[in-house]
Design goal:
By secondary structure, the protein is mainly beta. Helices cover 11% and strands 47% of the residues. The protein contains three helices and twelve strands, in the order H-E-E-E-E-E-H-E-E-E-E-H-E-E-E. The longest helix is centred in the N-terminal third of the chain and has 21 residues. The radius of gyration is 20 Å and the shape is globular.
Length: 330
């Protein structure tokens, strides 16, 4: 825990110092909450939270903060800082027995820094994550206290969780943005993406697309879940969301995609030590639906996500919900 506190403190100090030096400006701050409680389950990817800040780099002259091998022409530059916790548990949390055919208990606590370059039609994102998996993430203690407060069953199997392991991830994503013509005052956007993740936590290739339909769909690159690469709602230009002629927006949000997975520490087990593991599926897919609403600087996104089976002995796919709250700066 001391490691993560020191990492977070360093991250915050770096943000403040860099903001003064490079004249960065806050674009948005957000809270992400994900849980499967709405589907009356408490298993698999069962709970997560994220606190993030997105800043506009008004002077992008520091080329070491540019994403390599990408075009710099007519681009707006952003940087994000986040603090994230994710929790994974087996189906039966009431037993202290080792459950061979079910996924391991695991917690993943990490800090994230992301670089973003946007235009009206393209987004490039490069994201670094550094954190800890295992008892040092204190996910066991978090779940036990939370369940006690909610009068939920006591999770008894955390003695079989993954071992402590420092995690380092480097992820890249590219998004395209297509804007069909308005029809009867209704606007829409189509945003395909491809991404890759590499590190000792996961090695994956991803692809998919989202579709939004409603009134005053914002000029950004759509909502992202915590497990997506990088920050959600990155705008095409700085302060472009607030400078819109309309102070509000309301729209439906649909998305689907899939992944090819070479490594997943939460199923394959620890990289450098022996631990509980299950046989993962090489291919996985997801579907997402929900709605988004914004009034002036306040934004709410609510989504339901369905994942196909992630490992061979899993009986059914998993569903969870996400609530994302944001404050947009002028």
């Amino acid at each position: 825990m001391l490691f993560m506190k020191s990492l977070l403190l360093s991250l915050l100090l770096t943000t403040l110092l860099s903001a003064q030096q490079d004249d960065w400006h806050f674009e948005r701050i957000g809270i992400y909450l994900e849980n499967d409680v709405f589907f009356d389950t408490d298993l698999d990817y069962t709970d997560a939270s994220k606190f993030s800040a997105l800043l506009n780099r008004t002077d992008p002259s520091n080329t070491w903060l540019h994403i390599p091998f990408t075009s710099q022409l007519e681009r707006t530059h952003f940087i994000s800082f986040s603090y994230v916790r994710q929790m994974f548990t087996p189906d039966d949390i009431k037993t202290s027995d080792y459950i061979k055919e079910d996924r391991p208990y695991a917690g993943w606590l990490y800090a994230e820094v992301g670089l973003y370059q946007t235009s009206s039609r393209h987004l490039d994102a490069l994201v670094l994550q550094v954190g800890i998996v295992g008892p040092a993430s204190y996910t066991k203690e978090y779940q036990k206290v939370f369940h006690q407060l909610m009068s939920a069953p006591d999770p008894k199997g955390w003695g079989h969780q993954l071992n402590n392991e420092v995690g380092v991830q480097l992820d890249y994503q590219h998004k395209w943005r297509f804007i069909p013509a308005k029809f009867l005052g209704v606007s829409s956007s189509v945003i395909p993406y491809v991404s890759g993740e590499f590190g000792n936590i996961a090695i994956k290739a991803n692809a998919g697309a989202s579709f939004r339909l409603g009134w005053n769909v914002p000029n950004d690159f759509d909502t992202s879940t915590i497990d997506d690469v990088g920050e959600g709602g990155v705008p095409t230009q700085a302060t472009h969301l607030i400078k819109s002629n309309h102070p509000w927006s309301l729209y439906l949000n649909l998305a689907s995609g899939g992944s090819v997975v070479a490594r997943d520490i939460f199923l394959d087990g620890n990289t450098f030590s022996k631990s509980h593991s299950v046989e993962k599926n090489l291919f996985r897919a997801y579907g997402r639906y929900g709605f988004s609403a914004r009034y002036k600087q306040y934004e709410l996104n609510f989504v339901n996500i369905y994942n196909t089976e992630h490992y061979k002995s899993q009986d059914f796919g998993h569903r969870y919900s996400g609530i994302y709250l944001s404050y947009l700066f002028n």
